[in-house]
Amino acid sequence: MTIKQTPFKCPLCKAPVIRKSEDFPFCSPRCKTIDLGNWASDAYSISEPSADDDIPHDRVIH
Questions:
Q1: Cα–Cα distance for residue pair 28/9, rounded to 1 Å
Q2: CA dist., res. 16 & res. 36, Å (int)
Q3: Digit-coded pLDDT (tens) for 11-21
Protein backbone atom coordinates (compact mmCIF):
# COMPACT_ATOMS: atom_id res chain seq x y z
CA MET A 1 0.00 0.00 0.00
CA THR A 2 1.45 3.35 -1.05
CA ILE A 3 0.47 6.51 0.80
CA LYS A 4 0.43 9.58 -1.40
CA GLN A 5 1.84 12.64 0.34
CA THR A 6 0.28 16.02 -0.26
CA PRO A 7 2.85 18.23 -1.94
CA PHE A 8 3.83 21.33 -0.01
CA LYS A 9 5.03 24.59 -1.49
CA CYS A 10 7.32 27.15 0.07
CA PRO A 11 5.19 30.11 1.21
CA LEU A 12 7.67 32.56 -0.33
CA CYS A 13 8.92 31.17 -3.63
CA LYS A 14 6.38 28.34 -4.14
CA ALA A 15 9.11 25.75 -4.72
CA PRO A 16 8.27 22.15 -3.73
CA VAL A 17 9.09 21.34 -0.10
CA ILE A 18 9.68 18.00 1.55
CA ARG A 19 7.88 17.80 4.89
CA LYS A 20 10.89 16.18 6.57
CA SER A 21 13.13 19.05 5.48
CA GLU A 22 15.06 20.87 8.21
CA ASP A 23 13.71 24.17 6.88
CA PHE A 24 10.05 23.09 6.61
CA PRO A 25 7.75 24.81 5.67
CA PHE A 26 10.36 26.71 3.66
CA CYS A 27 12.42 25.26 0.83
CA SER A 28 15.76 26.66 2.00
CA PRO A 29 17.51 28.62 4.74
CA ARG A 30 17.35 31.63 2.41
CA CYS A 31 13.53 31.66 2.28
CA LYS A 32 13.40 31.01 6.03
CA THR A 33 15.64 34.05 6.67
CA ILE A 34 13.66 36.27 4.28
CA ASP A 35 10.45 35.35 6.11
CA LEU A 36 12.03 36.15 9.48
CA GLY A 37 13.14 39.51 8.08
CA ASN A 38 9.61 40.22 6.88
CA TRP A 39 8.27 39.66 10.40
CA ALA A 40 11.05 41.75 11.95
CA SER A 41 10.41 44.67 9.58
CA ASP A 42 6.63 44.58 10.17
CA ALA A 43 5.93 43.52 6.59
CA TYR A 44 3.52 40.99 8.12
CA SER A 45 0.94 41.65 10.79
CA ILE A 46 -1.60 39.68 12.77
CA SER A 47 -5.12 41.00 12.53
CA GLU A 48 -7.08 42.07 15.60
CA PRO A 49 -8.91 39.34 17.45
CA SER A 50 -12.61 39.26 16.73
CA ALA A 51 -15.01 40.69 19.30
CA ASP A 52 -16.85 38.29 21.60
CA ASP A 53 -20.05 39.28 19.78
CA ASP A 54 -18.68 37.58 16.65
CA ILE A 55 -18.27 34.23 18.41
CA PRO A 56 -21.31 32.04 19.17
CA HIS A 57 -21.98 32.08 22.94
CA ASP A 58 -21.48 28.32 23.24
CA ARG A 59 -17.89 28.74 21.97
CA VAL A 60 -16.81 31.65 24.22
CA ILE A 61 -14.33 30.65 26.91
CA HIS A 62 -14.48 32.72 30.09
A1: 11
A2: 20
A3: 999 999 999 98
Predicted TM-score (pTM) above 0.85? no
Contact (CB, 8 A) for 49 and 60: no
* DSSP E strand boundaries for 1-62: 8-9, 16-17
d(CA 28, CA 25): 9
Q: Is 5 helix (H, G, I), strand (E, B) or coil?
A: coil
Q: How many CB atoms lie within 10 A of CB 49?
A: 8
8: phi then psi, degrees, rounded to nearest 5: -110, 150
Helix (H) or strand (E) holding 43: none
